[in-house]
Amino acid sequence: MRAIYATDLSAASEAAIASETCLECLGRIGVETIHLVTVIPSNVHAGMPGMNFSKRREQALGRYQNVMADAGFETDTNVVRGMPHRRINGIAEAEKADMTIIGSRGQSPLENRVIGSTARNLARTTVVPLLVNRVERETADPDVLREHLFQQILYATDFSANAERAFDAFSYLRHATQEATLVHVESPKDSGATDGDPSDRLDALASTLATWDIDTTVEVRQGDPGEEILAVEERVTPTMILVGSRGRSRMRRLLLGSVSEDIVARASGNVYLVPPSRTA
C-alpha cells in the first residue's frame, strides 16, 4: 500500500509522524511506501517576516524521512505550492495512493487553523481514504491522543453503498484491529429508508468480523446521526471512527457529507474517512 503523509511542519504533524506506535500500525495494515507532502499556501511568501521556509522544510522533511526510513518504509518528499487540499488530492491521484494521512489538533480555536482547515477541506474532497490522526491540543509539545490507530474501531453505517465501501476497509484494517463497535443511527426522516431490520443487518456485519477474530458489538440509536455517533465515541473511546463520506442518494449528498465532515472536525480521536470509488 502507498500512503500520502501530508504535513504542514507543525508540532501536530511532527507528533503524528514521530509516533513509533502509529507507524507500526500503518505497517501492520500493509503500508510500505509513504510520500511526505508539504504544501506552502499560495498566499504565504518566503519574504514575509519570520518566514524561513527553505531551511525549515529541509530540516523537518529530512528528519521525518529518517524516522520513516528507520521504521522500514520507502519514502520520498514533495514540496509544492498552492491550495493545500487540492495539491494533496492531486498528488494522491498521481501516485495512485491508497490513503492520505494528516495530523490534526481537531477542535482548535485560533491556533493551528491552517492544518484544521486543510483537514476539513480534505474531508469534503478527498479522493482516497483519509486518516485524520488526532493529537493533543493546547500544548506546545503535543503527543498523539490514541497511538493504536486501528485497534478499536467504531464503524458508523447508514447501509449506503459508500458505507459498505467503508466496511470493506476492514479487509486490511483487521490486521491491526481487536475490537469493533458497529452503529446505525435512525432519525425520524429516515423511517423505512433502509431495507430490513437494522439490528439484523448489523449482526450480519458482525458475523463477518467474527471470522477475523474481531470482538464486535452492535448498536442501533435514534436521533441526529452526527451527535449520536459522537456520543458513542465518548462512551466507548475507540481508537478510530470508520465512516463513509457520502450517504444514500445524490439528493442528500450535502447533508450526509456534512455528517462525516462534522465527525472529522469534532471527534475526540482518530477518524478514517472512506470516499466513494474514484470510478463511481
Automatic annotation (TrEMBL):
Residues 3-132, 150-275 form the UspA domain. This is Universal stress protein. It comes from the Archaea. It holds the Pfam family Usp. Belongs to the universal stress protein A family. The lineage of its organism: Archaea, Methanobacteriati, Methanobacteriota, Stenosarchaea group, Halobacteria. CDD domains: USP-like (cd00293). It comes from Haloarcula salinisoli.
